Amino acid sequence: MQQPQIPSSTPRLSERFASKVTHLAGSTYAFFIALLLIVVWAVSGPFFHFSETWQLVINTGTTIITFLMVFIIQKAQNKDSLAIQLKLNELVAAHEFASNRLVNIENIPEEDLKIIQKYYIQLGEITKKEESLQQSHSIDEAHEMHDIKKHREDIILDQLEEKEQTNSSS
Q1: Which residues are CB-neighbours of 98 under 8 A, at least 6 positions away?
Q2: In this structure, what are the phi and psi dihedrals at residue 130, rounded to the nearest 5 degrees?
C-alpha cells in the first residue's frame, strides 16, 4: 500500500488568522491587556456615575469578544484534534501489536466507544495480573494469554491434587 503524500501547501488565510488570534489570545500580554481594560473601565465608573450605559459598554464588549473567540478557538481545537487523531492513527497502524480496529475510531458512535472502553477496562484488569509491567497486549491477546495461564494453572493444581492423593493413600 502506497503512503499518502502529505500536502505542503501553505494554510489558507482563515487558518493563519485563527492560529494567530488563538496564539495571541492565549498569551500573557492578552491577559494583561484584558485586565488593564477592566481596570480602566472600573476606574471610569465614577466619571460616568456608574450609569447603565457605562455597564452596557463592558457587557457588550465582553459578549462580542467571547462570542467571536468561541468560534476561533473551536476552529483551532478542531484542527489540533484532527492532527492528533491522525498521529495516533499512524502510531496504531505502524505498531505490529496494536489493533488496527482502532484506526479512525473517533468517527464511530459514542455508544460503541463506551463498549470499547469496557474492553480496555477488562484489559487493564487482566494485565494487572501480569508479572512484567512492560508486557503489551491487545484485547484479544490478553484474553488468549489469560486463558492459557488459567489452563496451565488448572493443570498444575490438578497435578498437585493427584500428588497429594497419592501421598495420602500411601
Answers
A1: 91, 92, 138
A2: -70, 150
pTM: 0.56
**How far apart are the C-alpha atoms of 84 and 9, rounded to whole Å?**
19
Cell of 114: 463506551
Cα–Cα dist 154/81, whole Å? 47
Q: What average pLDDT does range 56-83 have in this prediction?
A: 92
126 in helix, strand or coil? Answer: helix
Q: What is the pLDDT of residue 37?
A: 94
Backbone angles phi, psi at 14, to 5 degrees: -65, -35
DSSP 3-state of 55: helix
- Cα 82 from Cα 76, distance rounded (Å): 10
Q: What is the pLDDT of residue 58?
A: 94
Compute the distance between CA of residue 27 and CA of residue 21 in angstroms, rounded to an integer: 10
The answer to whether the beta carbons of residues 129 and 170 sit under 8 Å apart is no
Dig out the grid coordinates for 159 from the structure: 497435578
Map out the domains of the chain as residue ranges: 10-107, 108-170
Q: Please tell me the distance from the alpha carbon of residue 56 to that of residue 48, in angstroms, as a whole number.
A: 12
Chain-centre distance for alpha carbon 121? 16
Dihedral of CA atoms 82, 84, 86, 87 in degrees, nearest 10, equals 160
